[in-house]
From TrEMBL:
Organism per entry: Scleropages formosus (Asian bonytongue)
Pfam families for this protein: Mob1_phocein
Keyword Transmembrane: no
TM region positions: none
Residues bound to Zn(2+): H70, H75
Name this protein carries in UniProt: MOB kinase activator 2-like
Taxon lineage: Eukaryota, Metazoa, Chordata, Craniata, Vertebrata
Sorted UniProt keywords: Metal-binding, Zinc
Source superkingdom: Eukaryota
């Protein structure tokens, strides 16, 4: 299994090396912050989406892909033991299918784990 190094860009723009749990916490906290931000994801019918909205959505998909890749690559045995693999697989298929329809899988940083197969992106549902 390849060793993966995770980096997160902190509030001052500095790249910080971090563990997988910290990277996951940072990404999920950031995604939740974006989802809660009315300026990013407006809920009013008369509100418009911000410039760069597509980039933000692609970034969210990228972070979610990294998180799921880590779960599959590092914790899949535990997921199976907890009998959660059908749920994880369903989440993954939805992420890949919906993300593919939005063109989110063209990003060069898609796979932080070299052992993760990009052929998964070509799977049919």
């Amino acid at each position: 299994l390849a060793v993966v190094t995770y980096y997160w860009t902190d509030g001052s723009g500095k790249k910080v090396r971090c563990s997988a749990p910290l990277y996951t916490d940072c990404t999920l906290s950031y995604v939740q912050q974006l989802l809660d931000d009315e300026n990013v994801f407006p809920t009013r019918a008369d509100a418009s989406f911000p410039k760069g909205f597509v980039f933000l959505v692609q970034r969210i998909f990228l972070y979610m892909f990294h998180t799921l890749a880590h779960l599959y690559g590092t914790h899949f045995l535990e997921v199976v033991q907890l009998q959660l693999h059908p749920h994880l697989n369903t989440l993954f298929v939805h992420l890949i299918t919906f993300g593919g329809s939005l063109g989110c899988w063209r990003h060069k940083l898609l796979c932080p784990q070299p052992t993760t197969s990009l052929s998964l992106l070509n799977m049919s549902v």
